[in-house]
Amino acid sequence: MQMPLEITFTSTRASNAVKALVAQEAAKLDRVCDHIGSCRVAIEKQPRPQRSGNPYRVRIEIHVPPRHTLVAVREPTDSGMHDPLPVVIKGAFHSMRGQLRKLVEKRQGHVKVHAEVGTMVRSEESEGEAGPQASAVRVVDEPVVRRTDDAQAPPPLGWESGEGGEHTEDGEDDR
Fold it and tell me: The whole model's pTM is what?
């Protein structure tokens, strides 16, 4: 592993087994991207009543030059409150590997390109199973193409002409 690794423990004891597991999982990140600047892992056990099981929270933050910071967080949920710490650690690193793969693909130009370039949207960020994701995406402003000649512009990509007629400039069907 080439990247600097920093592990902090809060409200739980540091153990060699947990440190070794974190180092092993961090080495898998290094195989996805070989130029990670730093990796910080915070492991904490949140104080909760005994009925809630083992509420471990694992937060991973990595920096990839020049200006990328990726964060993966695994928090206890109702269905996973009794997950042991190694399972929570592996889940957080799995999420981080997915984010890192997407970043590497984007940098290498392996990202799907959409025909709607120029369309402005507004979205809200929420936490998904694989990390941050856009939700409630709304179109704010569509791109405008102006023609200076009198030729009829082709329909936008994905638009097909209606059945049995064409529209005239005043919007009425020509049937």
Answer: 0.58
